[in-house]
Structures are given as C-alpha cells and as structure tokens.
Amino acid sequence: MGSTLSTVHSCMFENCPNETVQQFAGHVDFDPAMNGLPAVGDVNIAYSVHPWARGQGVATVAVGLICDFISRQRIGTRAIARIEAENFASTRVVERNGFQLLGQFQSIDDQHDDGSPVVYATYSKEIKVG
Asked: Which contiguous run of DSSP H or E holds residue 110?
C-alpha cells in the first residue's frame, strides 16, 4: 500500500488577477513495501499528471519533492521508478531528477490487453538520508 505525500495542485491566474484558482494537476506517491523492489531500502515512487497539466514540469517538480520527502523522513536509501518502456515523457521526468537506468524488465504481474507482459524500464536514484 502506497503513501501519498499530497495532491499536486497548479495555481492558475486566468482572468482573475486578485485570486488564485486551484485545479487538480496530478498525484505522486511512494511505497517502501512494494513487492519486487530490487533491494532492501528501495522505495517505489509513482506519479501521474492530468492531461491539461502535462508538459509544464508538474511531474518533474513532484518527483523531486517526493525524493526530498523520502530523504527527510528517512524512509529509504534509493528511489525506484518503473516506467513502461514506451513512456518517453516519464523517462524524461526521472532523468531530469537524476535517476539512472537499471535495465528493462518484464513484469510478472502486469499485462497488456493482448495478454503480453508489460516491459518496464526501471530507474533508480540514491537518496541521501536526512
């Protein structure tokens, strides 16, 4: 079961210079107890961004914040992100946050609609504790 840091919000100042309008932009969470993590101390991170907010750096900031949170709370020593191999936008998000590719792995649990296994590119980032 994952732990949600918080919902990511984006403030838009559109036709209302004196007030802030908040819209749901996505979420980010972490799970240090996920099955199949490569090593003890690893923490899986996951995120998604609402279509209207994509391409604006929301996920890049959110991943940076969750890694900082994992460090400050001493939750783990390495962040792991499993990304479907074809998801180039998510690949750029983790690379911008200093993640390194560990390799590509076939999922033993997840399948595409046609029954073929999902292939994940697995990325990691060392987390400085404290």
From this structure: strand 100-111
According to the 3-state scheme, what is the secondary structure of the chain?
A: CCEEEEEEEEEECCCCCCCCEEEEEEEEEEECCCCCCCCCCEEEEEEEECHHHCCCCHHHHHHHHHHHHHHHCCCCCEEEEEEECCCHHHHHHHHHCCCEEEEEEEEEEEECCCCCEEEEEEEEEECCCC
CATH number listed for the domain at residues 3-126: 3.40.630.30
Residue in 12, 6, 3, 1 with CA at minimum distance from that of residue 26: 6
Asked if residue 24 lies in contact with residue 9, where contact means CB atoms within 8 angstroms, the answer is yes
Task: Give the chain's end-to-end CA distance (angstroms, integer).
Answer: 24
pLDDT in tens, 67-95: 999 999 999 999 999 999 889 999 999 99
| Helix boundaries (H) for the chain | 58-72, 88-96
